[in-house]
Amino acid sequence: MSEKNREVAIKVQGVTKNFIVGGREIPILYGINFDVYKGDFVLLVGPSGCGKSTLLHIIYGLEPPTTGTVFIGDEYEWSHTKNWRANFRNKNIGFIPQQPFWIKSLSVIENISIPGVISGMSFREAIQKAAKLIELVGMGEWADHRPYDLSGGQQQRIALARALLLDPKFIIADEPTGNLDRRAGEKLMELIRNINEQYQITILMVTHNVEQYKFGSRIINMVDGVITSDTENKHNVKAIREFTELVAEKGNEVPNIKKTKRQ
Amino acid sequence: MAKKIQENSIAFQERSSWFKREETSHMKLGSILLIGYRNISMNRTRSILTIGGVSVGVGIITFLIALGFGVQDMVIKEVTKNNPENVIDISNENLENFVVLNEETAGRIKNIDGISAVEIRANIGGKFINGESQTDSVVYGVTPGFMEKANSNLERINISDFASSNGVVVTPRLAALLGYENAQDSVGNEVEYQAVIPKDIRKEEAASNENTENEENNPDSDSNNETKNIEKKVGDENELISKKIKIVGIINDASKADAIYAYATFQMLKDQYGIVAGQSGKVEINDMEKISNARSQIEQIGFVTESVIDIVNDINSFFTIVRSVLVAFGTIIMSISAMGMMNTLSVSLLQRTKEVGILKALGAKRTDIFKMFIFEAILISFSGGILGVLGGYGAAKGINLLVNTLGQRYGINPTNFVYVPMSFLIAIATFIILLGLTTGVFPARRASKIHALEALRYE
């Protein structure tokens, strides 16, 4: 399907982000432009500190861009109030942070039901929905345990179930496999891919694990706050892997990187 | 820039109506309370200590207040038992303006607006003699209405029979001093009473004349025939008169169990001893709003007035001071409890920064987070408050029971001196909610201001 015929879920236009540190303004993102289409499984890759997580937070509505716009569907989130953004996030976007923080006093299934509770459901109603999802991620037998009693891989599966609770249109995942061993990471990625394929949920995920590139349908490369490549995965897995290995080896000295013009 | 955003928005609206745009929703109160309850349950030791601190504070206040109100209530009940609020005691204690309460002054008082009745009481001192037993005693000469207004507790005779009798009612102690081991045995017997009658309340020559008339009118009366009357002048002012009088009943006032006195009808004292005026009396008020005016008018005549309201007011003033001291103590104790609570909630917030962060990241609003912390604080203060009220009241009741048990061994009637008025319960409930709000508001505000990202990055 050509890009013209595909519906855009997220439109990122000219996004820059500067942080003020010790009175100095440090630029992190330099004019980011890209579209995410419905049903995409986009992997946002690049070395640590290149601004992937910051970009993710801007798209998710937790952090405003310094300049530029991010449209989610037809909504420019930053033109609305804080409560509106919170409500929009809650109802439409699933979120899997790098460390899946939990409400310690609640059980696994109660934690999965939290987005529902935030949206105004009672615990009873939300738990009914959570019960189906905990089975989907294969963690049914752990429903009544405390989340912090589980392994890292198990916790991320639970985090995925939590992200799915309110039938989100897309999921934002900030390096969910970052703290997992290879096997657990692979299993989680398979699960996410299956959900993407079965339920057509758009996924935007940060990772810098080269081995996981095969799961994404599209790879967006970032280096030093700029997008260096944006490719459909089925054609370029090998090329991206080689490129990323090169970046890892030589950093910013890679000769064929075409940076977008910095603002 | 704004124009560009608008253009993009229009372009997107044509292609995407994909997202849910429901009204801003908030967490249900039940869910907020459940999370608060679970958090309190999870940190059991800390919660027990915090709730314990509040309950000890509230418990001490409840204990002291229950005793304070209870003792006040008990004292007031004792004081007002025989003194209704609508009855004023009047007397001629003001020696500079000496007046007596005779028919003329009683009539003047009765004409005052708001007064429905005036009852006279004459006090005469003298000596009861029964064979070899004799004792000094006061005899109060009263009108029947006076006895009713004084709520006197008579035995073996009712007030109306007493009013028509020519005898006296005596206290058990007086009966005992007259040689009757069992006070009831004295009823029906005649004793001699030598009274010293002040000149001011005695009608000159009246006693002997009226006595003669009585003898004429009562030819069947054996007692009068056998009466050994003594009448002699005692100094210039007083006169000693001795008469045989019959004991017709017992006056038993629990609060004056050992008192030595007797009551006779005013008419009998008039007939036997020539008394025509009293030194004191009781005035019944039919309109309590006019009591103040009535009292001042009575005082203008020359009498001193006393109302149980004065005593009740004095008692209330005293206990108000006592309660103020208790409240001051309670405030200090509760301040310590409140600081403990604030500390707990602040520590709880620090430990839950990441929880707040993820809740906000997942869409929780500031007000949701604020409510979570506020209701947790209210849950703690309410649990502590209820335990404190029950504990404090229970402890006070326990002491009441202990005192009554010990008191009964020494023949003291059991009494209740523990009382918690509804106003106190309302006040303590308000206070508990305020405690939760004030101690919870700062941590709750801090929590609600936490930025999702700062919390997620927090280590």
How would the blueprint of this fold be written?
The complex is a heterodimer of chains A (263) and B (459).
Chain A: E1 8-21, E2 24-37, E3 41-45, H1 52-60, E4 67-72, E5 75-76, H2 82-92, E6 93-96, H3 108-112, H4 114-118, H5 123-136, H6 152-164, E7 170-174, H7 182-199, E8 202-207, E9 218-223, E10 226-232, H8 233-250
Parallel strand pairs in A: 3-8, 3-9, 6-7, 7-8
Antiparallel strand pairs in A: 1-2, 1-4, 4-5, 9-10
Chain B: H1 2-15, H2 29-42, H3 44-80, E1 87-91, H4 103-110, E2 115-130, E3 133-142, H5 144-149, E4 154-155, H6 159-164, E5 168-170, H7 172-177, E6 190-198, H8 206-217, H9 222-226, E7 230-234, E8 238-251, E9 261-265, H10 266-273, E10 280-285, H11 291-301, E11 304-307, H12 308-351, H13 353-361, H14 366-409, H15 422-449, H16 452-457
Number of distinct helices of chain A:
8
- Count of DSSP H/I helices of chain B: 16
Shape of chain B: elongated
Largest Cβ-defined interface: A-B, 48 and 45 residues
